[in-house]
Amino acid sequence: MSDFEIYEGEKLENWLSTNSQWIFIDGEIKADYKFSNFIEAFGFLSKVAITVEKHNHHPRIENTYNRVTLSMHTHDAGNKITHKDIELAEAIDAL
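The chain above was modelled as a monomer; its predicted structure follows.
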């Protein structure tokens, strides 16, 4: 399977239906995570940092106190959602 296999239409909708943490908005997949405090959110971010380096794919990361928001698409595939995004999203969800 190619890292640049495009997920759109029914294929993306099917993935989203089984990965309810993620939504498709503004051309990206996006997930919000809420924790009980900043330390827990930062701990999660540390794990995310290690995971994204292993995958060599880097999402946009936003952190405000106890919330972490991750957004991604694949720049090298014309800013589409690809297998690379899906694989990273699933790895992050497994943390």
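The first strand starts at residue 22 and ends at 25.
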